[in-house]
Write a structure and sequence with these properties.
The protein is of the alpha/beta class. Helices cover 46% and strands 15% of the residues. It has a domain of 216 residues: Rossmann fold. The chain is globular, with a radius of gyration of 21 Å. The structure holds pyridoxal-5'-phosphate (PLP). GO terms for molecular function: threonine synthase activity.
Amino acid sequence: MRYVSTRGQAPTLDFSGVLLAGLAGDGGLYMPETWPEFSADDWRAMRGLSYPELAARVMAPFTAGSIDQDTLLGLCREAYAGFTHPATVPMVQLDRDLFAMELFHGPTLAFKDMAMQLLGRLFDHVLTQQDRRVTIVGATSGDTGSAAIEACRDRARLQVVILHPLGRTSAVQRRQMTTVLSPNIANLALEGTFDDCQDMVKAMFADAPFRDDMQLSAVNSINWARVAAQIPYYVAAALALGAPDREVSFAVPTGNFGNVFAAWAARRMGLPVARLAIGSNGNDILARFLAGNDMSMRPVTPSLSPSMDIQVSSNFERLLFELLDRDASLCAAIMTGFRQTGRMAVPDASWRQATTLFHGEALDDPATEAEIRRLHRETQYLADPHSAIGIAAARACALPGIPTVAMATAHPAKFPDAMLSATGLSPALPPHLADLFEREEHFRVVPNRLDAVQDAVRASVLKNAA
Ligand SMILES: *Cc1c(COP(=O)(O)O)cnc(C)c1O
């Protein structure tokens, strides 16, 4: 399989190439050159497979030419062995036609583990093949950093440097990162905001000598391999509910659009998906787009669901590319215009087409809390704020007679304050994290200056190489 950029000006690459590259050289996102499609019989033949077997079967067309099928299966088995639920992604029935699929039974209790656990192993495999080492740098407001650290710890070919804003992540999220004491992991607490952290990462990539010297790489949500690793659980959910002989809908709490784009991809590959509901918090750019083709940036406001506090959903460019029938130059022009004006000029026909499949639902904090409380009262189910938004979107957008699966993206124990305030209960951390608050923390505070951050990255690379 070859991959093309949504902006049409970068060289095509194979799977290993897009894995290591992340963003395309022209600023675009990599997409498969053609979509693999499975027939109804192909889907039926996947019934009864274990989750790792299913994941390898669904992803095989994407890695073809780079990673052979046995290797991929081995990596999937290892990636999901650390999940604490025997079903990997269990489903809970909340109503006659409403289900929650729990994607948070991995090491850091958020759905990012689904892709990141596999990505760490894919990186290790490809770098060993090529006898290379890379330095992964990333900015996090919480979940992405801890998932990347857990997935990459103790891997000799990877040095991982994660920037978080000093004093601005939750205690659970910070400790999940800073208590990992592996020599290849460095946590930098930047004296600034999350946006400053992101700007630092961008600036390091823009500094070509530094980038080459450090062999910088990224595992952020625009990496195609992350999208690919999120497709299999949609297949698992649909098969469990009767696909390919019955349609299903999905509801996804959405920030960067990566997770819900994976659902779109599953449909594109032939899975019978009736509707895709997008849940947002008060940062509702996607809901406004679907309601009236208004894709205009507003300032980000903090919410109870911090992993969705985003104004530019970077993976939306992938859907846009498809809505434009893969016209890369038009896609590039629209994205450049969006950067310049803060408003995305999506052609009316494309917008109309999007609204036939996607439905948006935005919940502010009081509505999110009310949904958590209602769910607990009526079903005894404890949903974290992100998952509750997905479930509310599922209820708002359900079609009669078609089951809807809401993606539950974080364990409620990750957000104890919100849970306590909504339900009076504070869910316990699972056993493997029960002593999180007794563990030793290690991080380095760095001033909000590029030279200081680059010095810290260089120091951590040298220390690990020594
Ligand atoms: C990252 C994240 C999301 C948003 O996922 P996207 O792929 O960015 O849309 C939702 N919920 C939780 C808990 C997350 O960590």
